[in-house]
Design goal:
The structure is a single chain. With about 300 residues, this protein is of the alpha/beta class. It has a single domain, classed as Rossmann fold (3-Layer(aba) Sandwich). About 40% of the residues lie in helices and about 15% in strands. The protein has 14 helices and 10 strands. The chain has a 7-stranded mixed sheet, with helices on both faces. A 3-stranded antiparallel sheet has the order 1-2-6, covered by helices on one side. Helix 1 packs parallel to helix 11 and helix 2 crosses helix 3.
């Protein structure tokens, strides 16, 4: 446990103390055990710190709510400083954790060696299908949770249905057990924010990403932040770290060794990979999108299912 201004932060530590430090940030309301499929391989090369944010599901103890972007970035900086006061770190974040990692990199670039963003929030507008599926969860009905979770984790469910059931139970427990709280962000990352990421950065996304279009996200990054390396993980969605743990951690290793990333980083290969047509709004779907968008505040209470 790491004491701080907002309570005590629970951290799972693995790997030799002398190895390069790495901090792992999971998605919203996800515990440190989220990294279980990846931590053994990651800890073979790093001293890993899997952090649980105070006020979310897990073992951290929150004594004062985090209420602003500056506070949550400050909490992370204090935690990293307590764990590694001198050495720069590698920072990995998924979804909400990816958004927070990007915000931290903008505020404290000198504390980082490299940055890995796994389908980070705040990069693109949220897919309307995601919102349509997520909002019924506010009814608290198990069927609504299942409708959302099985869709979100479709790829991992084909090979590991037990993982989906575990995520379903965790989501229901989180919703029923935790008090509603104000969610900090994810505020959209602007073009200037992305262009301002000077830390060597890898953006990794599953080809079936549900939060937003993976293809459009890569197009945006190549346009406004060409210094960010981009990679698509075939056969995975928002569940990329548990659906393809070996391949995702292998991508990290290649990136850390400054090797050339996969073929999807090139224009020709990426175009071939995304040969299928993209999702387009019809007048009806646009109307649905605008209606659900007005319910954004309510959606923020929805728990994570990782």
């Amino acid at each position: 446990m790491v004491p701080g201004s907002y309570g005590e932060t629970f951290v799972r530590i693995s790997g030799p103390a002398d190895d390069a430090p790495m901090v792992l940030l999971p998605g919203l309301n996800s515990p440190s055990l989220f990294w279980q499929p990846n931590v053994q391989a990651l800890s073979a090369q790093h001293r890993t710190y899997a952090v649980e944010r105070p006020g979310e599901i897990g073992c951290s103890v929150c004594t004062r709510p985090i209420s602003s972007l500056a506070e949550i970035v400050g909490w992370l900086n204090d935690t990293i400083g307590a764990l590694e006061p001198a050495r720069p770190i590698d920072l990995v974040g998924l979804s909400y954790g990816g958004w927070l990692a990007a915000r931290y990199a903008l505020a404290f670039p000198n504390r980082l060696r490299k940055l890995v963003l796994l389908a980070p929030g705040g990069l693109m507008p949220t897919n309307w299908q995601f919102i349509v599926r997520a909002l019924p969860i506010l009814t608290g009905r198990r069927a609504a949770f299942r409708w959302f979770v099985e869709w979100l984790l479709l790829d991992v469910g084909r090979n590991d249905p037990a993982r989906v059931e575990l995520s379903l139970e965790r989501a229901i427990m989180s919703y029923r057990s935790m008090r509603p709280r104000r969610l900090i962000g994810p505020v959209r990352l602007t073009d200037a924010d992305l262009a301002g990421l000077r830390t060597p950065t890898l953006f990794l996304v599953g080809e079936h990403e549900k939060l937003y279009s993976a293809r459009k996200a890569i197009e945006r990054l190549k346009r406004v932040a060409p210094q960010i390396q981009t990679e698509v993980l075939p056969g995975a969605g928002h569940d990329l770290t548990c659906r393809k743990p070996a391949r995702s951690t292998a991508k990290f290793s290649i990136f850390w060794r400054n090797a050339t990333l996969g073929a999807c980083h090139s224009e020709n290969a990426c175009g071939a990979h995304w040969a299928s047509p993209s999702l387009r709004f019809t007048p009806i779907s646009r109307s649905i999108w605008m209606r659900w968008r007005a319910m954004w505040t309510a959606w923020r209470r929805i728990p994570s299912v990782h």
